Amino acid sequence: MSPLPGGSNPEPDAEVGPARIRQMAHFDPKVAQTKRLMAHPVRRGPLGALDRALAGLRPKASLLDEDEVAAPATLPARLVAGRRGRVIAGLAALLVVAAVVGSVVLPGSGAAHPSASATASLAANVVSPDPSESASPSPSASPSAVASPSDSPGPSASPSATPVKTPAKPYSFVALGDSLTAWPEGDPWPTRLDAEDARLRLAHNAGIPGNLTSEMLARLNKDVFAYNPSVLFILGGTNDLGRNVSSATAIANLKSIIIAAKAKKIRVYLITLPPESPPGSVKGINSFNASLLNLANAFRVVLINIHDVLSTSTGVYQSKYTTDGIHFTSLGAQVVANTIYARVHRLGY
Predict the structure, then answer these.
(1) CATH number of residue 328's parent domain
(2) In which domain, by residue range, is 268 found?
């Protein structure tokens, strides 16, 4: 052992007591003047505080003296039992604590899985497709856990919680025309069309035998607008041709009817003239129907072709569909109703 500062020799190692420990824990004034520190100066700062706190939890160990500091071969084994061993143990404890704290996911930290916030956002934005089922799911739920409108809401829910489809809106219509719309008496095509679908409701049959297109125009307010229909069907012009009224005049009257009805937000459907039995009528009817097509295109209304389904290849009536070469049989009226329904049904009626 080397002499202690001040010239005194220590007692043998077996006799080193508390006095020796206290002496080694402080500076010797003479040594301090030479700026040489003792092997074990007093620990200060955070590590020193940690060392003091840990000291009460472990058995005291003997200190290293200057000879042991000078002997690196024996240092590793003695560090475990000495003060440096406690400091190293404290540092190891700090590393363990830091590792534990670092594993905790703090708000805004990058430790969370990158898809976590996206999953929460997706679940929160699941939106039930049913407006009546507008309850928002919990943001923490996964997409598969969010209830859909078809899911059962729970054992306490009543069967009435199931969404009920609203019945389709019915469309009221008026049929404007002459005897072709009014007959056969009691069962004309407008009545048969009403029976085709519950959504199509006949508001008024405005067919008057012998009417010209000018007379149809004159009674719009009384026989059409007074019933506030959604749809207006127009079949007119046969009497105009039979009374030598020009096609241009008849088309002009129908044009005025269309304009007035569209101003009332009524959807208009034009219907072609049916064939007639005399072969001499074919040319005039075909020409009038061509003018109807141009009128429909100009005002963007639908033209329903009943002529072709009632006529032969030569353009005259099929006998089974007419009573007198002009008016419909019951079968003819049903064919007209079926043809009109097939056309408007494709348009949502």
Answers:
(1) 3.40.50.1110
(2) 171-345
